[in-house]
């Protein structure tokens, strides 16, 4: 890969996943980026919208790269968990409820109860930005959970403290081991980065440049 990649995220999971592609990258994080989105925006478009918003905030870094700015690529991403509405088993009609990062243990309990025994969707929006162009896309994975007991929910929250994770869980942690009954799509997307799609898109950008 010819690009000097800048990963605009302090997520250890995203660093681990990107490193798995055997590409050279460095992490740069800007604080205070506005991640708001319009209230009427479709839930399945929110992650990509925020990834593009982050990309604009980081665009100035392209001009700061003294060596060869045209070879620099900034990767921004955002992941949302979309729970089905209370009267649905699966969000087939697009009425899903976006779950962000829980603020408290009670908030995490509330989110995991919304996912318990149901099928939800994890959407990661990605934006790849260079000096000469930009690609953005979303990847959706369907995840099913068994009925989680109160003990299982409380055990997971108290031992793993998933307050930095959308939807209050990490699929690669204990809750995924005991709770996930089915997954349709990219497992790595649920972790926070659809690395296979990112690899393909970077190859296309490289060929077109």
Main features:
7-stranded mixed sheet, alpha/beta, 209 residues, 8 helices
Please state the CA-atom Rg, rounded to the nearest Å: 18 Å
Q: Would you list the SSEs in sequence order as H and E?
A: EHEHHEEHEEHHEHH
> What global shape is seen?
elongated
Question: Treating each run of at least 4 consecutive H or I residues as one helix, how many helices?
Answer: 8
**Which spans have pLDDT < 50 for at least 5 consecutive residues?**
none
Helical coverage, percent range: 25-40%
First-last Cα distance: 12 Å
The chain-level structural class is: alpha/beta
Task: Outline the secondary-structure elements.
Blueprint: E1 4-7, H1 12-19, E2 25-27, H2 46-58, H3 60-64, E3 72-83, E4 97-99, H4 105-115, E5 119-129, E6 134-145, H5 150-160, H6 174-179, E7 180-184, H7 187-191, H8 195-208
Parallel strand pairs: 1-2, 1-3
Antiparallel strand pairs: 3-4, 3-5, 5-6, 6-7
Helix pairs in contact: 4-5
Concise description?
The protein has 209 residues and is α/β, with parallel strands linked by helices.
